[in-house]
Amino acid sequence: MRKEAVNADPPIPLPAALTGRSALLDGLRPVLGHRPSVVVITGEAGVGKSRLVRELLTRTRSSGTPALAARCQEPDAPFPYAPLPYAPLIEALSRCRPRPEDLPPVTGALRGLLPELAGLLPPAPPPADDPRAGQHRVLRALCALTASLGKVVLAVEDLQWADGSTVAFLRAVVSDPPPDLGLVLTARSSAPPHTDTEGGDGLPFPLRPPPHVVVAERHLAPLSVAETGAMAAGLLGARAVPAEFAERLHRWTGGLPYVIEEVLREWPDSTTGAPEPPLPASVRRVVVQRLRHLPSDARRVVAAAAVLGDPAPLQLLGAVAGLAEQETRSALAAALKEGVVRAADGTYAFPYELARRAAYEAVAEPERPVLHVRAARALTRCTSPLPLVRVAEHYRCAGLRTQAVRCLEAAADRAARDGAAGTATDRYLDALRGGPSAVVRDRVALKLARVALNARTGPQVPTALREVLDQCSLGPGPSGEIRLLLGLLLRNQSGSGLEALEEIARAVPDLLAVSTGQAARALAIIAIPSLKGWPVGEHRRLLAEAERLLPQVDEEDLRSAVLANRATALALMGDPSAWDAVADLPEAITVEAAARVHANLAGAATALGHPERARAFLDRAWQAVRTNQAPYLEAFVETTDMLAAFTSGRWAGLLERAEHAEEQYQDVPDFHAEALLVCGLLRLHTKGQTDVARRLLDRAVGTTALDTGIVLTSAAAAVVRVHLAADRPAQAVQAAEGALHHVRRTGAWAWATALAPPAVQALIRDGRDGEAHRLVAELADGIARRDAPAARAALLTCRALLTATTGPQAGAGGSDALYAAAAAAWAALERPYEAAYIREAWGLRLLAAGAAGGRTVLHEAIAAYQDIDAVWDVLRCQRGLREHGQVTVRRPGALGYGDHLSPRERAVARLASLGLSNREIARELVLSHRTVEHHVARALRKLGLSSRTEIGSQLGP
After folding, report:
1. What is the Cα–Cα distance from 764 to 736, expressed in whole angstroms?
2. Which residues are CB-neighbours of 23 under 8 A, at least 6 positions away?
3. What is the per-residue pLDDT across 142-194, written as a single tens digit (0 to 9) for each?
4. Which of 50, 172, 305, 850 is 20–30 Å from 826 (CA)?
5. Residue 154, SS3?
């Protein structure tokens, strides 16, 4: 029969090693090797005492020492020997086989109790006249029988349930143990017990052995989070479980091995399935059984603790349970003794979450709403600051929706005042889900729309706002503002570019009916251009509409918002008046507005080629973010700063920073796209990982929502360079076409800086000189009246590249002068990569023409690339030198990789496993054909393979 107690041994396969107990087990074995010895193991129910003892006895038997195990039973357990004195000892000793010659006559008193040994025991003595004398004789007989066994280990478990006769036997044995006896005792205790006192939480008698007895007392604590994860991995047959799952499993189970096993038995897909585990029936029965042992008041306090959920002080538990203070104290003492709750720092709680759930389910259904109302009112009276979310949840569980929504709205208002935009957003959403009245719903929706702009939200916010708008219960003012803010959310966070612009445009008529300032703000927002938006001319028209309304705007906050968006729009367009618009910004704008406008201006200044302005704007944006600490704004400034760092060649440590941002900002499409872009560009230029880089760049293009001139063009430019390096000019042209289409459609030529030069190179190398000249003419016309120094440097670069189609030119206007002017322009703009790139093209042009200075110019490009760790570009330049008969000297001190693949060998092997030929790999990685042959041969040797077709299965992830 299986025993339903929290420290019972569950009948499922256990891990080979005792998780978290191996060192303890190793320390106890030597103790039992010294006789006589006593080992005391305590711990709360389910912590694994029985499992530890079983393993200890198994190892003892394996060394040749006999071991006997006895277990005390719970008083009301349906066990046939429970009513008998010495029942657990009789059960254990019935399995021993003493030698008859070692048995003293007194052991004959055990014939009636141990019929299995009747043939070995001496004759039974005559009955004693006094029953007490008879009991004492049996006690002496048991002690004598135990001593006669010689070298033996006796384990007696669960002493908290030991009957008086068993306790008397153990007292006698501990006070005068046989010389060859090893005694192992276990008892339930939630804390290390005082075993030298009687009646404490632990042994039912004081542990006072003679001095010559070796004693070891060990208290088993629950498993740590890491140990819980290790045990779960062993039970699930996995190498490891996610750290987050281990933390949740520890919270559910309290780190108790028995509960962990029971949960995972019923939840085999735990790491990928439902977010909460089922409550095992065995755990429920254990908790309910313990509750039945409690007096009525203690059960009421436990029910109150289950309803409250979180650790609670005595006064709060008494208020919910409806008990006076002294009654509550007595009730808690009983619950603590039974191990149903734990005490910590003046509060009381369940040892693990599933125990709380079982206790809550044990509360009668009609009683739960009553207790939840009491909990809500008690928390309101007794707790400061008021835990509004907890109070709301109690009202919700009690079926009082109005009160629940009111508390959630108040909690959101408080979070919004504290600058916790994400928390406020979650609470307003909860309030809307709570089924509020129409008036409350519309009020909460407007608050949600306002605060969500500074949070990093998912699709649930736009969905909730649309549901409110569909009710058609809002007036034009609230409807227009919610629609405006919805459009901003879609634009900034949800990846819905044109849909967002159209949503804001639909808000303008409603806003004009109630607020000129709000209408002007909406127009100024959709006037901000983007590559996936409308043509720049349409954005200019909308900006002019906003400027026309501006004199009628009296509200300072709305006027500031319009001016901030106007400055942003003009700067992104490259309008020369943008910096005057920046100067017109009021000083007294909000911290959130300051972070937004200065991050926008920093991005525009970086793209246009104003590095000093970009730094100044970024400094102000970071100051505002550090004051406000809104997650969305922090992500905005961080990705803007990363793009500026890449543009200016500050690449040290930037890849790690970008990868962290890529993980953190996946819920905001444009920020995620910018992080992916920087990751892809750095993987290409600093690692030479062309396949990885292209995947990242493709993801960036697919993720960006509107793109204010960075992601589409920079990603396309990088892919064009990859194809050109691999001598695929036709594919390079094709890679440029999508981004060029957006540039031509919108007329945003000021944003073609990164793309135009490699696109011109691709067209020339593909024999499409006429298209190259037309592209340069379009660029020149598109930036003619724009304040875009970077685009002008790109134009100089393109014109220098075009000289390859017209032959060598002499004089100051010749190709050398154009190349030199372009390189100087990039250097002045603090763009070392572009400066090195044009020098590379210049040097290769000179080498191809057989002109003097080509080698020198190309080495200058290599040095510039090396300064920013552009390894891939250095290799491309070195290949160019080799192709023109120029020998390069390898730097000493290259790393050795022994039998492991070097990064370059791994890259070559991976491409080979995909079926690429050596020549295709050479073009892809900018290597010579012979170098690729060597890398493939070394990779095959190190992997122990004979064919490149076998590489894929050996490379791993």
Report:
1. 13
2. none
3. 999 999 999 999 999 999 889 999 999 999 999 999 999 999 999 988 777 65
4. 850
5. strand
Do 532 and 708 form a contact (C-beta atoms < 8 A)?
Answer: no
Please report the pLDDT score of residue 840 as a whole number: 96
Phi/psi of residue 247, nearest 5 degrees? -65, -45
pLDDT, position 667 = 82
Beta bridge partners of 672: none
CA atoms of 578 and 580, how far apart (whole Å): 5
Helix orientation angle between 556-573 and 536-549, rounded to the nearest 10 degrees: 150
Burial of residue 326 (number of CB atoms within 10 Å: 0-12, 13-18, 19+): exposed
Question: What angle separates helix 669-685 from helix 871-883, to the nearest 10 degrees?
Answer: 40
Question: Are residues 860 and 874 in contact, defined by beta-carbon separation less than 8 angstroms?
Answer: no
Distance in angstroms (rounded) separating the CA atoms of residues 664 and 878: 38
Distances (CA, A) of 871 to 734, 850, 901: 26, 27, 19
Q: Coil, strand or helix: which one is 348?
A: strand
Distance CA(891)–CA(75), nearest Å, equals 82
Instruction: Answer whether the bond into residue 385 is a cis peptide, omega within 30°.
Output: yes
Placement of tokens 């207790």 in the chain: 371
- The DSSP secondary-structure symbol of 45 reads T
What is the C-alpha to C-alpha distance for residues 264 and 249, in angstroms, rounded to an integer? 10
The three-state secondary structure class of 118 is: coil
DSSP letter assigned to residue 890: P
In 3D space, the residue among 141, 55, 160, 52 whose CA is nearest the CA of residue 98 turns out to be 141
Per-residue model confidence as pLDDT tens digits over 922-948? 777 777 777 888 788 888 877 777 778
Give CA–CA dist 872/876, Å, rounded.
6
What is the number of alpha carbons within 13 Å of residue 681 lying toward its C-beta?
Answer: 30
In order of 412, 448, 505, the CA distances from 416 in angstroms are 6, 10, 28
pLDDT at res. 447: 95
Q: Beta strand 214-220 with 37-43: parallel, antiparallel or unpaired?
A: parallel
CA within 13 Å, CB half, 28: 28
Task: List phi, psi (to 5°) of 72.
Answer: -75, 145
H or E element at residue 862? helix 854-867
Helices (H), ranges, 471-555: 476-492, 497-514, 516-526, 536-549
**893: Cβ contacts below 8 Å, ≥ 6 apart:** none
**Residue whose pair of structure tokens reads 């159209």 in the numeric block:** 502
Please state whether 553 falls in left (phi above 0), alpha (psi between -120 and 50) or beta: beta
Distance between CA atoms of residues 676 and 698, nearest Å: 9
DSSP-derived secondary structure for 361-424: HHS-TTHHHHHHHHHHHHHHHH-SS--HHHHHHHHHHTT-HHHHHHHHHHHHHHHHHTT-HHHH
The first and second tokens of residue 356, run together, are: 């709380």
- Written as six digits, the tokens of 354 are 């599933």
Q: Which two structure tokens, joined as six digits, stand for 172?
A: 């006698």
Is cis: bond before 36, omega within 30 of 0?
yes
